[in-house]
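Let's study today's protein:

:::
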Amino acid sequence: MKKITLLTFILSAFSLSSYAQEGMTTQDYNKFSIDLGLGVAKASTPVSENIPFYTVMEDLAFELGARYMLNDKFGFKVSGLYFESTNAAVNGPERNTEIFRANLEGVANLGNLLGFREFTQRFNLLFHAGAGITNIGLPANAAAANQSETNLNFMGGITPQIKLSDRFAINVDLSVIGTLDQNLTLDGFNNGQTQNFDGMIATATAGLSIYFGDHERHADWVDNSPKKLFGDRVAELENELAQIQRDLQDTDKDGVADYLDREPNTTSGVAVNTKGESIDRNQNGIPDELEQSLEKMYVTKEYAEETYYAAGVEGVKPDANDDLINVYFRFDSTQPEYYSLDAINQIVKYMRAHPDAEAVLTGYADQIGNTEYNRKLSEDRAKKVYDIVIATGIDASRLSYKGGGVDSSVDKDSEEARQIVRRVSFELK
């Protein structure tokens, strides 16, 4: 049983690890670069036996390379180097031997392999090694004048880098080249010695790496370490979670999340469909629930005459005409406050009880805003109440509406007082 449990745990851990790695997206990067270098070189061997001879580490060398990275850790490059080796036998004439090499090498990005990106974004280190050819051309004043030969070589070196920008970096290259089976010596004689490496050249150059490609960074500087990718993935998931939390908010409290809500400002308390839209089956612009709340109050004329007169229906007309029955609105809105439906209901009941009664609806706005805008707003408010009353079954010929514009009878600086004048009043005839 313990073995099964342990095996299950190991398989689960492996699955989670695989899932995490698949979920992390590596950063794209550029792969191609041109490497330029200028520096010094020294060809130290071979020389003829028993002939005192010297070379100096001051010969000017030119280096050019093209590099392609297969990934952010390994790649290859083709490069060439040229210099003239200044050398002389003791008490002899100075000779300038031309030396050229061309090599194909593998490249290892030690910076990414050793985790440099965890502590620096400016310094990097490359290692390169490979094989190629070396050509040696002797000068006219050598013992073997104007002769040349080409040999197989092996080389290796390191290249520290300092990043200047995403497109440029300073490089310093230190390399050693060994040639096989070299017959000509630097002083122009045949080499009678037998060695694994008959020739040895050391170079030190400094120059510029130029990066090409459509992406932001080159493979030399990209950080695709598991730690970095994991951190990026965590940040991405946190952003996604925050977005989900924002989407799931329900601003108008209608039970439908904002990201699904096609009607984000639904009247409070009104039933909605799965898209957050007020249910309006007859498509008259008035939510069915508002209509239903009024329809529950519908009565016959006989019942009204027998019941509502005694209950105070006759008091509706004087109250309305004395501006005691009003429908109120929110700031800059034509949607009646939910509690104002009772005022509409009183008017409807009165007009049902009195088939010959007529009503004039007058809308008002507070003093905030443009006068012409407020005049239009007051008329729209009256029209909204007009539509609701008609929806209850009152004939449109018995109703009229108009905009009364701004009601300046209250203190403009009092928010509560302004609430009172944002209204529609009734005049019953």
Notes: The first helix runs from residue 2 to 23. The two ends are 91 Å apart (CA to CA).
